[in-house]
Specification:
The protein is about 45% helix and about 20% strand. It has about 300 residues and is α+β, with helices and mostly antiparallel strands.
């Protein structure tokens, strides 16, 4: 059976309330000590990538002896950051993030926590290495339901709030998608729904870059000529329930290497999706002054971020 620690591991002999308060502080110290070592953080990263690894699997590719890895794992287990279960004669290790979450909950209020999570998502997206030179990938976890998230992706009144653009369609495969942004309307026979499986998957081709669109957002003639010469891209939204949250994976793909559109949307998507997450979790979009640069498509110069 897998070990099932609470957010903080309990110590034998804890009796009075004062004793238990001391235990909690001791547990916090243990978590910080466990996280202070870069080797142990590396092991947690590997378990975050793939849970249920054996000692042999965790040792693979590491510049550490098996004995050292075993000792580091023992510290992580004692701190409650790793749980174990037996599969036959093999012990498997799993990440337990509850102690870290408990630390965050101790010092970050519920309101500020949503802001921290939004900024963390944005920082991760901006600092991570691109998956490839021909697509943009963004993954975030949103405290909502698949149905509510699907509505946010397909209801023009909803997209207008966090995106600034109203996307109009009946969301049937092959149906057109009309973009309305400010005074600009973009309708093109090639702007179509490619996949619609509510509330799990949505895909459509990207909008046409028209002269009216470029004029509205101040795009230079040279930039407009460049993006109009590129092939049309497509975007895919995958929605996966994970506990009380929904894992949203956005893949914007079908770009040629060195694409100017890819460079531009890579700055626009994180701000748009952070705004979406904030709206679904708090009922409000990010305040205008707190929105990341590029939150309004086309606002950032050289190169502009585009929707």
């Amino acid at each position: 059976m897998a070990s099932q620690p609470s957010a903080w591991p309990r110590h034998a002999g804890a009796g009075t309330d004062q004793d238990e308060a001391g235990d909690v502080d001791g547990d916090v110290d243990g978590v910080f000590r466990a996280l202070a070592d870069p080797h142990r953080r590396l092991l947690l990263d590997r378990l975050d990538e793939r849970g249920g690894q054996s000692l042999r699997e965790l040792c693979a590719g590491l510049d550490m002896t098996r004995q050292s890895v075993s000792k580091h794992l023992a510290v992580l287990v004692a701190a409650g950051l790793v749980t174990t279960r037996w599969r036959g004669r093999e012990k498997l290790h799993h990440l337990n993030a509850a102690p870290i979450d408990a630390i965050a909950g101790r010092w970050i209020s519920r309101y500020h926590r949503e802001r921290v999570r939004t900024l963390t998502d944005l920082t991760t997206a901006l600092e991570s290495e691109p998956v490839s030179s021909t697509e943009f990938v963004y993954i975030t976890y949103i405290n909502t339901t698949p149905q509510r998230l699907w509505q946010a992706l397909t209801d023009p009144a909803f997209t207008l709030r966090y995106w600034g653009a109203a996307l109009e369609s009946d969301w049937q495969v092959g149906s057109p998608v009309v973009w309305r942004q400010g005074e600009v309307t973009i309708a093109d026979a090639e702007q179509v729904v490619l996949a619609a499986e509510p509330p799990r998957r949505l895909s459509y081709t990207w909008h046409t870059f028209t002269p009216e669109f470029a004029a509205a957002f101040g795009f230079a003639d040279e930039f407009l000529a460049t993006v109009r010469a590129e092939r049309r891209s497509r975007v895919v939204f995958d929605l996966e329930p994970v506990g009380r949250t929904v894992k949203l994976t956005v893949v914007h793909t079908d770009f040629d290497p060195g694409s100017t559109v890819l460079e531009s949307i890579s700055g626009g998507w994180p701000a748009i999706l952070s705004n979406l997450k904030t709206l679904l979790e708090t009922g409000q979009t990010l305040p205008a002054g707190d929105q990341p640069a590029g939150g309004e498509p086309g606002a950032a110069p050289d190169p502009p971020t585009v929707p």
